[in-house]
Amino acid sequence: MHKETLEDIGEKELINRLGKFMPSNQILDDCALIKNRNNDLLVNNDSLVENIHFNDLTICPKDLGWKAVVSNISDLLSSGSKETIGITISLILPAKTEWFWVEELYKGINKALKKYGGIILGGDCSKGNQKAISITAFGIQGELELRRNACRPGEIILTTGIHGLSKLGFLIQSKMNFDNNVSLNERLISKSIKHFCRPKLYPNLIKNLLKTRSNKKIKKLGCTDSSDGLFQAIQDLAIASKCKAILNYEKIPKDKDWPKGDKWENYYFFGGEDYELVFSLPKKWAYNLSKLDKNIYEIGYFTIGEPSIEFTNKSKNQLLKNVPFKHF
Amino acid sequence: MHKETLEDIGEKELINRLGKFMPSNQILDDCALIKNRNNDLLVNNDSLVENIHFNDLTICPKDLGWKAVVSNISDLLSSGSKETIGITISLILPAKTEWFWVEELYKGINKALKKYGGIILGGDCSKGNQKAISITAFGIQGELELRRNACRPGEIILTTGIHGLSKLGFLIQSKMNFDNNVSLNERLISKSIKHFCRPKLYPNLIKNLLKTRSNKKIKKLGCTDSSDGLFQAIQDLAIASKCKAILNYEKIPKDKDWPKGDKWENYYFFGGEDYELVFSLPKKWAYNLSKLDKNIYEIGYFTIGEPSIEFTNKSKNQLLKNVPFKHF
Questions:
Q1: What are phi and psi of B85, to 5 degrees?
Q2: Topology (CATH level 3) of domain A25-141
Q3: Which residues on neighbouring strands pair with residue A32, listed in sequence order?
C-alpha cells in the first residue's frame, strides 16, 4: 500500500496540517510573537537548503550569508519589528566543506547585520550531506503590528518596490537560456544580479508609516513580504484577511527596460526573493505615505469578496492562472 | 592545492573559529542570552541530522520528537531557565517522507512540551535530501544564572543522575554487537532503551538549589548538561571556569547491574545524550542539597590548576585518555 508522502499532500496542505499542532496557528504569519511585559518579541526562522534554495554556481558564500540574514529580517519588518536584536545560526555542513566557505558566509552575515542591525547571539554546526543554513532572528515588536490578517475591504494595496529582478538575476547567474528573443541591456543585467545576490531591505517604511498616520487608534495593519513573489504575497494577505484584491496592472511598477511577453509577466509576478513589503492602508494614509515616500507604489485595493485576486483590466486575469512555485 | 576543510580543522577548532564572529563568544555556552528590562530570555538551538544524530532503525519519530525537545530544554535548564516559553521548529525533509512520520514527530514534540512546559511558537518546513530537525527553544532566565564559566576552586562537583544508559540503549537499538562477554539483564536493557528514546529532565533542580541556598548573594553557578557525555561536561566546565576537576571514581553513581571492563567505562564516561545536569556548589550548599534531594550525587571537586580532569584514585586516570566523539 502506498503511504501518503509530503510530495502527495503538497506544500499548502502540509502547512495547514502543521498549523493544527500549534495553539495559535502562528505558522501562517511571517513571525511568531513572544509576549513580554514591556517589549513583545518577534521571532522568525528561515532555512536555506543547498540545491533547493541556493547552489554554488549562482551565489557565492558571502552573498548567501547576506541574503540569509536579509530574508529573516524581512520577515521581522513585515511584522512591524522596530529593531533587530540578533540572530542564532544553525549550520549543517558536509565534512568536506572548505573553511573558506564558512568564513565567507559569516562575513556576509556580519555585513548584513552591520547594515540592518543585530548581532550573532549564538549558533551551532552539525555534519550532514547537504549544506543548510537555518537562521532564527529576533526583533522587538514596534507600535504598529503588521499582520497578514489585518487588511480590510476599502484599503489601498501598496508595495515598496519593483518585482521580478531577483528572479532575472537568478536566471542570469544560472546561465539558463531563459528567452532567446530578447537581448537585455547591461544596466538591467547588473541590477538584477545585484537584486538576486544582495537584496536590500527598506526599514524606513515603519518610520514613514508612523509619520503619516493621522488616526493614532490604528495599531494593526495588513502586511507581508514578497519573498515568495508578488502574487503569493497578495494571495496570502487576501486569504488571511478574508477579502478580495483588485490590482491595477498599469500602476504596478516595472523596470523601464523590463521585456514584454507572458514569460516576463511570470517572472515579474511569481519570481520571488524580492523582499519588498506588500501592505494595505486606509485611503488617506496611503495618499499621505505615497506623497512622503517616493519608493512606495499604490497598486490596487481590497474589497469585500471571496479571498482572490483580480485585475481591473480583465484581459490581464489570465496571468493569475499560473501556479506559484512549490517546494514539495 | 588542498584547501582546508572542516574535517581538517576538527570540531573544537571550528567552534573556536566561529566564536570569533560573535561579540561575546556565546557559542561556547549552552544558551544565548537576550537582555530585556524585566525578564532576560534564554535561547537555545539544536539540530538533529539523520544518520548523524538519529536514524529510523534506532528511534521512532514520536520518540525523536520528544528527544529533540528534551535536548533543547536541557540546555535551557543548564543555564538556569525558570520557565520554558516555547519552541520554533525548522524541518528539512525529503519529498518522499511519509506524512505519518511528520505527524508522529509532532506528537512526540507536543508530549514533551506538555510534560516540561512551552508551546510551539512557529516553524517551517523545507525540502532536502536528508532529514533534519532544528529546534530553537526559549526560556526565561531565573534568579540563578547557571553558566559554564562560573565554577570555582574549592567547590563540590555534583550531578543529577546516572550516565551511560542512553549510550547502552542506542547500542541495543542499533543491534550492534557491543560486548560478547556480558549478558545484560532485562531490567537494565529496558531501562537503557527508555533512557535513549525518552530521556527525562530534572527541572526541580533549580527549585531545590534556591531552597538550599544560604548565601543569597550567590547568583551565578557553574553548570552544563551531559548531552555530550559526563567527561565532556566536566571538561567544558573546567576549561570555561579555568580550574581543575578532581573526581572520586567510587562516588560516581552507576546502575547496580552496569557491567565491568574498559569498554563499559567508556560507554559510561563518554556515552552522551544523558541530559543530566553537571554543576558545582560551595561545600555547605552541596551538603544541604544532597540531603534534601536524593537524586543528587557529589562526585568530586574543583581545585586551582590547569583546566583538566584527574581521579583521586590515580589508577583510574587511564580512562581519561579516550577521546570524546567528534562530529567532524
A1: -75, -50
A2: 60s Ribosomal Protein L30; Chain: A; (3.30.1330)
A3: A43
What's the whole-model pTM score? 0.90
Q: Which of the following CATH numbers is that of domain B145-321: 3.90.1170.50, 3.90.650.10, 3.40.30.10, 3.20.20.70?
A: 3.90.650.10
C-alpha to C-alpha distances, B46 to A88, B136, B276, nearest whole angstrom:
11, 7, 17
* A29: closest CA of chain B, how far (Å): 9
Predicted complex ipTM:
0.87
Residue with grid cell 550516565, as numbered in its chain: B163
Q: Please report the number of interchain residue pairs, chain A to chain B, with beta-carbon separation below 8 angstroms.
A: 234
Backbone angles phi, psi at B86, to 5 degrees: 170, -170
Residue B258 or residue A179, greater confidence: B258
pLDDT digits (tens, 9 = 90+) for B1-34: 678 999 898 887 888 888 787 766 454 577 888 8
Contact, A79 vs A167, CB < 8 A?
Answer: no
Give the nearest partner residue to B136 out of A45, A109, A127, using CB atoms: A45
What residues of chain A lie within 8 A of the CB of B103, using their CB?
Answer: 17
Give me the sign of the Cα torsion angle A149, A154, A159, A165: positive
> In chain B, how long is the greatest CA-to-CA distance?
62
The count of other CB atoms within 10 Å of the CB of residue B30 is 26
Domain(s) labelled CATH 3.90.650.10 in chain B stretch across 145-321
Letter string b/e over residues B170-189, b meaning 16 or more CB atoms within 10 A of that residue's CB: bbbbeeeebeeeeebeeebe
User: What pLDDT is stored for residue A180 in this prediction?
Assistant: 66
Rounded distance between C-alpha atoms, residue B113 and residue B85, angstroms: 10
Residue of A nearest to B2 (CA): A98
For A134-171, give the DSSP string: EEEEEEEE-SSEEEGGG--TTPEEEESS--SHHHHHHH
- Distance between CA B15 and CA B8 in Å, rounded? 13
Task: Identify which has the larger pLDDT, A108 or B14.
Answer: A108
A15 contact partners, CB below 8 Å, separation of at least 6: A27, A28, B125
**Burial classification of residue A217, based on how many CB atoms lie within 10 Å of its CB (0-12 exposed, 13-18 middle, 19 or more buried):** exposed
